[in-house]
Amino acid sequence: MKNDRKETFIHYLESQNDWCTAKSLASYFKVSTRTIRKYVNEINQNQTVIYSSPQGYHLVERANNKMDEDTASPTKRLNIILKELILSSEGINIFDLSDRLFLSISSIENDIVHANKLIETYQLKIRHKKDTLLLIGEERYKRKLMSYIISQETSSEFLSIKTVQDSFSEYDVSWIKSKIISILEKYNLYVNDYIMNNILLHLIITVDRIKNNNSVMHSADLHKVKSNLETQAANKIASFLEGTYNIHFNESEKYDFILLLSSKTTLLNYQTLTPSSLYQYVNEHYVNLTKRLLEKVYEQYFIDISDDEFFVKFTLHIRNLIFRVKNEKMTKNPLTHKIKDSYPLIYELAVFVSNQLQILEKIHIKEDEISFIAFHIGSFFERKKELEKKILCVILCPNYYDMQLTLVQKLEKKYQESIEIIQVCTEISEVKIHQKVDLFISTLPIKNKEVPSVIVHPYLTEEDHEYIQNQVTKLKRQKEMSKVKKYLDLYFNKDLFMKNVYLDNDEQYIEYMSNLLYEKGYVSKEYGQSILEREKMSSTAFNNNVAVPHSMGMDAIKTGICMIILDRPVKWGKEKVQIIAMISINNQNRELFSPFFEGVINVLSEWKNTNELIQAIDYEDFMFKMSKLFSIQA
Fold it and tell me: How far are the Cα atoms of 120, 543, 616 from residue 625, in angstroms, in the given order?
């Protein structure tokens, strides 16, 4: 195809705001439809420029700009590929995958190499049989992997104040938040930022719907709900919003908000409002329906969403969604575009749930309602990620007068950034058997030796706080290090590991190692020069035995570590070293790599650790020693 005709063809497609059929293009260019297909194939020979579908042809950047952005990120590409493999027991055709992701076969094959390193910890392996890619391994590990890749999509921005404010620009979100916090504090109720933002979004959506004459109406008996701190606070917040926005919370809206607040603040969450007690407040049909929907998600995607807090919230949402659909009270969701574009895997889960709900309830669900479901699912995964960073605690304390309440409130107020109280019991036999517990905080002696514990006074003393803080710090470090340990195989590579390579000085080592990284496709040809420039500013040698040369920027093609271990010291500037670890960091991997890098540096910072690593016989021995040292650090 001549260049001028190629440019004319692309320019014509660029001028169109819709799909162009082969027939219309053939008519315009006075050629056959077969020639049009030939043009497209030739233009797409090295890179997909034109997207093909049953609708016709469209320039890729216009047809699927977002897909380009998503697949530009190595992490997102891996997530998409792995998700497809998990869901397809028969495997997927590599050429179909290439077309879907707008990637070359070689790019996908390169991604598969990285994917196999990532999934080693799940005892899974991607095999390439002819043109088919297959995920080999046990189903339970596939389920764990699916849960992991879905959770990777969420971030601290998923439910941030900024996200809420951007979506509802006509409301002063920060001001409303401060007012709600003030009311909760008057009733001695404490919530962390994540839960606060969840409550805030629920209330702003509620206010917005009421203002647009879309109130929820269902059978609600406020007398069912006990009068306690939560109900008093919910009524006070509703009154504040009614006065501020000149609206009216009917009994249904108020009832739902009391239940929501009760599932999120201090004690009722632990003692009363659970999936089993929800029958007292919500029609049994909706509770069973929600259970069935979540079972369907588990069957299809291997994702277990069994969290009590999520179940309560999601049941209320499903019931209200059905009411809105049946009464044609559908409203615009300002988060639709953001969630659909930014979180495609989570949105796909929401589409599946919506489809199942349509089948079970014989209703039709529009896109805006699908986005609300996606929001709830995304919030669950964000919450799950947040909990992974926290220490999960069970409180054991007799319920004399207000002893339990006072103890829980004090702990939540002081440690809300570092611990999560998942259950409050009067004795250890009440602890849920399946529940993961990191720490018991108890006012009574306990015999359980499997889980760490701190014995405290019913009314906490300074000494108690010191004991709790020490144990929390220790457990958090163990969590962080065990997580980092999983990535050892991802960033270390046998092809980049060497023993006893003796050169004259640091410049020669930098040239040698950067060339090796270049040959293996990790860095550009100029990478060595950027490391030399960094080294001239300040030596990367530390601990009198280790050098960690790296570039000023995170501009590598791939993230990895090139490692040389030496039996005898060599000169590195003014220092002498026996371990040289050259780091290449890709900008897309920085969030995942940073904690890992910090863990490696912590290991290499101690002389006794480096001394042990120096004695490694080969790569396998080095990895064994490194893994052991990470465990000790934890």
Answer: 18, 19, 7
Strand partners, 603: none
- Determine the angle formed by the axes of helices 229-245 and 173-186, rounding to 10 degrees: 150
The DSSP symbol for 224 reads: G
Statement to judge: residues 434 and 458 lie in one domain: yes
- Residue 11 sits in a domain whose CATH number is 1.10.10.10
**Domain of residue 523, residue span:** 488-633
Q: Among 63, 93, 112, give the residue marking a domain's end.
A: 63
Domain count, the chain: 5
The whole-chain average pLDDT of the chain stands at: 80
pLDDT by residue (tens digit) across 473-520? 989 877 776 766 667 777 888 999 999 999 989 999 999 999 999 998
Structure-token pair, residue 532: 């030399």
Alpha-carbon distances of 592 from 79, 143, 389, 391, rounded to whole Å:
14, 21, 14, 21
Q: Cα–Cα distance between 95 and 100 in angstroms, integer?
A: 9
Q: What is the CATH number of the domain that holds 451?
A: 3.40.50
Is 270 in contact with 423 (CB distance < 8 Å)? Answer: yes
Contact 81, 115 (CB under 8 A): yes
Residue 482 lies in a domain: no
Partner residues linked to 565 by β-bridges: 499, 579
Together in a domain, 355 and 420 = no
CA distance 59 to 15: 10
Do 315 and 290 meet the contact criterion of CB atoms below 8 Å apart?
Answer: yes
Which pLDDT score is estimated for 302?
Answer: 74
pLDDT tens for 83-109 read 888 877 788 888 888 877 767 788 788
Residue 243's H or E segment, with its range, is helix 229-245
- Cβ–Cβ under 8 Å, residues 290 and 311: yes
pTM: 0.55
- Are residues 236 and 91 both part of a single domain? no
C-alpha 207/C-alpha 201 separation (Å) is 10
Q: Detail the DSSP E strand segments found in 405-478.
A: 419-425, 439-442, 453-455
Is residue 481 situated within a structural domain?
A: no
DSSP state of 73: S
Instruction: Say if 213 falls within a structural domain.
Output: yes
Question: Would residue 416 count as lying in a domain?
Answer: yes
C-alpha to C-alpha distance for 98 and 434, rounded to whole angstroms: 42
Using alpha carbons only, give the angle 582, 585, 587 rounded to the nearest 5 degrees: 165
